[in-house]
Amino acid sequence: MEKLPERITVCRLQCVLMPQGEVICEGKTIEWFKDLKRHLETETEANSKLRKQTELSEKIKLEIRINRKQAGECMREADRLNKLLKKPI
Question: Which domain holds residue 60?
Answer without folding.
Answer: 16-86
